[in-house]
Amino acid sequence: MAPVDTIGIDSPVNATGQLVSVVLTFSLALAAIVYVVLLWRRERIAWPLFVLAAGTLTCLMEPLFDHLYGLWFREEGAWALYETFGSHQPIWVPAAYTAFYGGAAVLVARTLQRSPTMRTVWRMYFGIAAMAIAAEMAYVSVLGVYEYQDSQPFVVAGYPVFLGFTNAMSALVAGMIASRLAPRLRGANLLALLAVTPAAFAAGLFGTGILYLSVRHSVDDPSMVLVSLGALTAVGGIASTVRLLGKHVVVGEPLPAPTGAVPGAPRAEPAAATGRERALA
After folding, report:
1. Number of domains forming the structure of the chain
2. Which residues pair with 72 in a beta bridge?
3. Within 13 Å and on the Cβ side, how many CA atoms surround 115?
4. Taking CA 139 as the corner, what is the angle to CA 146 and CA 242, rounded to the nearest 5 degrees?
5. 20 backbone dihedrals φ, ψ, rounded to 5°
6. pTM score, two decimals?
């Protein structure tokens, strides 16, 4: 495992699996688009359109994920869309992001608006994680369109299952923020939503995953014990982030008041009273 390097050991893509991947992901993306358009027509709300677009734009960050986490889309016989950061991207990847990171985020936001509780937050988090794990196992082991190369921790059916929890964060956090922020936005301010899902993606995979990635890319052959521990820090960091945002963004629980002064901080001296204040005293 060379530091920050994509090995890219290529193999033929499964032709049937590729066809199924294209049909499946574009069908799910179409369903997400129809759902959002119906919301817009029925309820006259435009913010789901921007959240859906934000999820689609997040696909531009996929090559960075591939490069750092060791995912390799098989190139031989694949229907390519483009290549960047040394990562080959199939044509169905943007559709997958539209469905999962766009449509799911809208669904999360709508659900939390109806039921803004921590129980709902955790139910959706584990539900999205389970869906991500099942889907990736299918794409890797059944459809044979990509694979995770080199040594990976917690692998089941060719998929490092801890990544299901990291992938779930992007759609969940984007939906959590949109549930409170989006209804308050109007006009051009809605464009700000385009950055929410990419930011959540980066925070989850490159932010809370920084210890894991630092260990994974530290030397050519890092200890799997350390790599596994690093993977657990990513999962734990994401869980704590979900809990924090759930309590204070979704539920609206106020942050606790400071319990004391910061050690070593200078004490503020009372301001001198003005002549008017002395007269009124």
Report:
1. 1
2. 147
3. 10
4. 100
5. -65, -40
6. 0.85
- What residue spans of 138-191 are helical by DSSP H? 162-181
AA identity, residue 131: M
Widest distance between CA atoms in the chain: 88
The answer to whether position 10 is within a domain reads no
Spatial contact of 204 and 169, defined as CB atoms under 8 Å apart: yes
Dihedral (C-alpha) 188, 194, 199, 201: value to the nearest 10 degrees? 160
Domain carrying residue 108: 15-253
Q: For residue 259, tell me if it sits in a domain.
A: no
> What letters, b where the CB count within 10 A reaches 16 and e where it falls short, cover 2-18?
eeeebebeeeebbeebb
Contacts of 31 (CB under 8 A, 6+ apart): 99, 103
Asked if 120 and 73 touch (Cβ cutoff 8 Å), the reply is no
**Can you list the residues of the chain whose pLDDT is less than 50?**
1-4, 276-281
In this structure, is residue 49 part of a structural domain? yes
Q: What is the pLDDT of residue 221?
A: 85
| pLDDT the model gives residue 277 | 44
- Pairing label, strands 71-73, 80-84: unpaired
Q: What is the Cβ-side half-sphere exposure of residue 228, based on CA atoms within 13 angstroms?
A: 6
Residue 200 within a domain: yes
Residues in the chain: 281
- The Cα–Cα gap between 105 and 176 comes to 8
What is the Cα–Cα distance from 6 to 63, expressed in whole angstroms? 10
